[in-house]
Amino acid sequence: MSALLQVRGLSHHYGQRIGCQDVSFDLHPGELLCIVGESGSGKSTLLKAAAAQLIPSSGSVRYHQRDGAWLDLGELSEADRRRLAREEWGFVTQNPRDGLRLNVSAGANVAERLMALGMRNYSQLRDIARGWLERVEIDPSRIDDAPTAFSGGMQQRLQIARTLVTQPRLVFMDEPTAGLDVSVQARILDLLRRLVNELGLAAVMVTHDLAVARLLAARTMVMQGGRVVETGLTDQILDDPQHPYTQLLVSSVLTT
Amino acid sequence: MTSNYNFAFLDENTKRMLRRALLKAVAIPGYQVPFGSREMPLPYGWGTGGIQLTAALLGPDDVLKVIDQGADDTTNAVNIRRFFARVAGVTTTERTTEASVIQTRHRIPETPLREDQILVFQVPEPEPLRTLEPREAETRTLHALADYGLMHVKLYEDIAQYGHIATSYDYPVLVDGRFLTSPSPIPKFDNPKLDHSPALMLFGAGREKRLYAIPPYTQVESLAFEDHPFEIQRWEHQCELCGADESYLDEVIVDDRGSRMFVCSDTDYCGQRRAEQAA
To answer: How many Å apart are CA B45 and CA B213, to the nearest integer?
Structure first.
């Protein structure tokens, strides 16, 4: 099976400082890849570069389109980048307030991407929005409420609904469960696992939480100081870490 | 006519700059062309954009009509009309049929316009996406890519909140199937008059330093949903002065006991109808 996303020798520097250095990986359809590491290890830089939100200093990212053609993201025009982001990709931010449109209702947030794709039937938009609110466990009767009236966990679930409503092939997630309390985290992870399986989507998820990787990802990449220090099957990495940093990371997980 | 000013107040180089921008605007229907807006002898928001466009258009033989909310006798209309009578010496009129240039705020005359007439709109906010997207660089990109899904978010919100599209003025239109455009704060009642209009329509926003145009016989589509089509306002009343039942009506409170009457907002149209009935 051919890869969906191919990252080769990706580096990004912020002036003298290293964002990420010489990262390569393949992502296959239906696969969820976790990138773990401490703050400042270059996870988010890597994610943004892979999602064509910033132009890397060097290296290449290629994406396998629906029609079978390979697209080099470095040569993408602004119009194509936006089309991809709108039609084939999704991006879930850590703070739902960055990913949501806070001055319009929950229903409009979910329906926005559909309207951007040209859907112009109000009742149909409404039905789909209600369906998705239900899927992410938000009471559909709150469809006309503003997202500001929602709790943090609900806002994050709303953002997930808004991103997945167009059934993207590839989703980038930047610490979607950070900043939420443990029980809410668990529900969102449960939800994500279910949706990823149902929709068969591929995802790259950045997290500093090893438990998230354990729960969701088949494959995990460990980053430190902008470099990938270890990569492999999640269970293998967590149960038998080879690199000293990974060993430290695994041993520092609190257990009760 | 006051001879201390150049004809029509603005100097010739400024008028040339405005005309160049206007030609570009006509060539790209609905596209907002930046221009060097000048300081005018009245505050921003009182029609500086419209006045500069009118000044660039006027010739000595033109006949100027100015309306404000449909009326010829309101402060804004009277002052702008008097301004051009003084600095350009042009003939002014209140009759829509006699005018060659009509500057307007918030209305399109009821009387159908002709090919030899130009309508100049005063525009407070030329960017229809502004309330949804505050970043100018972003709205320009959205226009460049014709990425207009955002506008429907606003209409969606209207229906979700009020059960119908409650936007009743400044109703967004798509010009020539390409550019999303603000028709200026005219009531949506007037939107159908924009479509395939024989008269040239020019829009000037002085504070925002943008002008745009809808050339004659250009397709202008008011946005809507398939199951919530575009509709104009209707009244259960007729004009109490002239009996018109197809014009835009203003509700006027006539005493402090809640009595009210409905009259045409277009004073010239109403007056002509009454003159015909009297004859």
So the answer is: 19
